[in-house]
């Protein structure tokens, strides 16, 4: 048996909760990397430096 890790380059995901739920129901998909409703803060590093994004609901 083989397992595969697939990376997707997507534009904006309009409804990440619905997209995550859809992935949860795809046969063979074990896990995805969408952390919907699990975090209040995200640290993003890129060419322009580091950004800290905080959920509006966390405030």
From TrEMBL:
EC number: 5.3.1.6
GO molecular function: ribose-5-phosphate isomerase activity
Keywords: Isomerase
Pathway(s) served: Carbohydrate degradation
UniProt KW Cell cycle keyword: no
Top-level class of the enzyme under EC nomenclature: isomerase
GO BP of this protein: pentose-phosphate shunt, non-oxidative branch
Protein name: Ribose 5-phosphate isomerase A
Organism whose genome encodes this protein: Streptococcus oralis
Organism phylogeny: Bacteria, Bacillati, Bacillota, Bacilli, Lactobacillales
């Amino acid at each position: 048996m083989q397992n595969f890790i697939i990376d997707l380059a997507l534009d904006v995901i309009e409804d990440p909760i619905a997209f995550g739920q859809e992935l949860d129901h795809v046969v063979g998909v074990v896990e995805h990397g969408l952390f919907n409703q699990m975090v209040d803060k995200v640290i993003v590093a890129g060419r322009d430096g580091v950004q800290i994004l905080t959920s509006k609901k966390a405030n």
